Fold each of these.
Amino acid sequence: MAELMSHSDFRVALEQAFAGTMAKDASFSRAWAAGKLHKQHFVHWATNHYHYIGPFGDYLGLMYANTPDHARDAKDFLLQNMYEEELSDDRHTDLLIRFAEACGGTRAYVQDRNNAMPFAKGMQGWMYYVSGRENFVVSSAALIVGLESQVPSIYRTQYPTLINEYGFSEWEAEFFDLHITSDEIHGERGYQIVLKYADTPELQQRCLHYVREAADMRFAYTRALYQTYVEPDLGPWVEEDERQPALVG
Amino acid sequence: MPRIYFKTVDRYVEFAEGEEVNVLRMAIREHCDVPWQCASGNCGTDRLLVEDGAENLDPPRRRERARLGDLVDAGYRLACQTYTRGDVTFSWDPDQVGLDDEPGSGGGSRAGWAGTG
Ligand code: FES
């Protein structure tokens, strides 16, 4: 039977729960950071990403409804997060479509659900399920710690490549710049809520379970992006340092 | 270990060698009372004067340059937009509000109403 962990031990356990399966290490992310992708690949990425994170306000709204009144700070955080996704500035999905258009895509193509992979629809369904059916602290662990807090580590590698190697302007790539920093803060606030309200061993273990599941889901989804759209053009992904001996030899 | 000195509240926050950390994230994590609102470079509530260690900070990107304007040359950075990889010292006015808000308008720290305590 698990014991109740201290906040610091629980935080380390949460960080370790997704350390081995971070989406930044999946083949699509690695090819992106290495400057290997074509603009058409980015259109597919944006389309799938739209169907995965487009309803983020919905997911947060379900979590808000599941959060009890005594956890006022958690409710306020969810509301703030929702507002920032949708209203505080450019709508985040509009920034995503701006990027897709800079790659030659169209709003209609991105928004058409028929153009998304089954994996993207699976991510969306999983997020509706967790946010609608789970205890708010567990869904916060899954969606905010397990998924949203990974975002800065992904985009901090990919954003400079977009500007310096792929030649996008800062305006075209604003979606990424915005999320590098806003998701740092959302992720941190998510940690604080989970640390505070996961106050039984059972809740802590359930949070860890869902953080692992979230990381696995996102990793599999990101790998599927490569297999579906990039592999037919570039072949299976091989890291540069593994590629090198073959080229020399 | 490198550390951020939040001079206004006299707090040091350490982080691992070789890491780059977001300044506002560290302030929130360690409850250092940096005022903030939007976390996305819009409001300017979290502007900090860099007193030392500017060479350890990443250069300001478009949103931060647009929001701060001349304040960048005066040594200010937005905590939410800034990453550091080494020692740095920041100070600020504890009562400061967003750059578009009037003092006393309530446009200051969101930590007050959304803090997790
Ligand atoms: S908190 Fe608004 S600009 Fe940083």
Note: Confidence is low (pLDDT under 50) at residues 244-249 of chain A.
Amino acid sequence: MSDTAHTAHASAGASPARRRPLNLAYLGLLPSWLIMGFALLLPILIVAAVSVSTRGAYGGFEWGFDLTGYSQILFNEGWEGEMEFTPQYLIIILRTIVLAALTTLLCLVLAVPVSYFIAQQSSSRKALLVYLVTLPFWMSLILRVYAWMIILGKDGPLPRFLEVFGAPSGLSLMYNDGATLAAMVYTYIPLMVLPVFASIEKLDGTLIEAAHDLYGNRWVTLRRVILPLTAPGIISGAILVFVPALGAVLEPILMGGGKQMMMGSLIQLQFGGGRNWPFGSAIAVMLLVFVMIVLIILALRAARKEAAA
Amino acid sequence: MSQQNAVEVIDVSKNFGVFQALRSVSFDIQENEFFTMLGPSGCGKTTLLRMMAGFETPDTGSLRLQDRDIVDIPPHKRRVNTVFQSYALFPHMSLEQNVAFGLENLGWDKARIKARVGEMLERVHMDQFAKRKPAQLSGGQRQRVALARALAPEPQVLLLDEPLSALDLKLRQAMRDELRSLQRDTGITFVFVTHDQEEALDMSDRIAVLGSGEVQQIGTPSQIYEEPVNRFVADFVGETNFFDVDVLEANDNKAKVRTPFGQVIEIPAPVDVSRGKATLSIRPEKLNLGDQVQGIDFTAEVRHKHYLGGYTHYVLDAGGTEIRASRRNASREGDTISVGSQVHVGFVQNSARVLAS
Ligand SMILES: Nc1ncnc2c1ncn2[C@@H]1O[C@H](COP(=O)(O)OP(=O)(O)O)[C@@H](O)[C@H]1O
Ligand SMILES: [Mg+2]
């Protein structure tokens, strides 16, 4: 009793909080609610609203309810108002998903051995290597992509190197999906390495030895012990790479030459030269929904794994 | 037919940086043997065991497994299994899956694996937990699953690295019997690592005592205890008293010495003892006191006394030398020696031993 009195006395100012703790607690969270509301939710709501509005005569949009933006993803309105199926945007969407998935896969394949290598180093070397992995983030993305344009471009180091092995002179490796993929993998791989490294480092080394001891070769050990135990890190890494890769704009435009459009640049175009805000917003909303579905599926799987363990 | 060796360690040395962990270690382990590597922490036991498993390679020397050089054979191709000190059970697999893991990698067919897994889990009394995950088990249960998992593939040699050290005292005692009977039933060669001398004496057919990266002595438990070849072994295995003595004559594993108490006696000695200064070792229980005295006889003052029921330990002072003696309380009058009194101390000649200093 005296204990309580003492506490109340010492922090008299906080005593209303004890009677009605909920109100004050929520008030304390206000800044974060405001940030979430204005910076995250509001833009999404605006984009969603624009996606169901009418296209303005001179660009922009007029408020209203109109699903043309969505129907345009699959159908083209003919001269007499008839709807023709046009796969061109669908192809762009699928290409984007395939490219993002390939980026994720390549990042994973490269990140696992890299993380494994880093995890085996002494702790000071580890810190240095992790720092080096994050180093590219210190420079603007656009500069780094330009660097790749130089590396792969005509008379760049890589084509020159290939000439030694009989490639035709004046070769350029730029402006194709391969170049886009290379730059995307390069851009996003740190996002894969960091979580994968974190989970490999946590892995108990004697489990790997136990797997070898029980006649498991490298492949068996990787598949049945290392991968299942590092799955949480791999899933995080995959999400961190796949989601931004879906919306990538710079790499497809600069590296792919913009010939083959990707979803990111398609959306950008609708707000710029295309002057079709509702259509651009509709694609953006679709992308968002797709990402959310993927994330929910992954989260459910992770939860089920957790429950099973 | 000559007995084949299960493992041969031939002149193995290993350095970690400038630190010499093993110095030209050699010994043979026989088939069906319970072989123990005993030594203080840091003497190289784990390193040696890991070499047998294939996780370390010797800098020089070689290892043979059933007459085959194994230094260049990777761990997953050696018919050797390990019971890890931390058990190293796969946390994402059930007990069943853990035990089946090695068998699957060996390419056994499904029915045979199922039967073997059931048999092994039953053998270690864990069959009712087959579907559980390791996290749901106690330490002792994990230990038994680790054993089942390592024994299931019928390895040529089973390696155990201080498997009992993480268990509490009572469980440790029970697991000693369990391990010993598993070894007898399966006939598999066990190579057991421990720093606990009592464990080693209790369970082993033969013991290799390791100290500072070298083999100090190899022998049966009673050879190690009764006939230690040097101070290190006498000191590390069991308790003992050391006295400085002068060797007057040495030959044929016997030495004539003058004891600090004046007598000249002839007692057993290893071959490396020669004339000059040496150490006499005599274990506390070999010293008899008061009415039990026989053999060599001297007097000492009783400094401390520890009454332990079945035994009493005495700390004595014989002319400035501290001596430890223990006396079995064979009758109710056993405990009549009092602190501060003078007592007769004696020992029979062949229960003492002379060691090179
Ligand atoms: N990988 C290693 N790197 C450096 N030193 C090591 C390594 N492994 C073991 N050592 C050292 O070698 C010595 C023997 O180790 P170990 O075989 O584990 O001893 P034990 O099992 O007898 O306690 C120890 O001093 C240990 O510090
Ligand atoms: Mg050890």
Note: The first helix of chain A runs from residue 2 to 10.
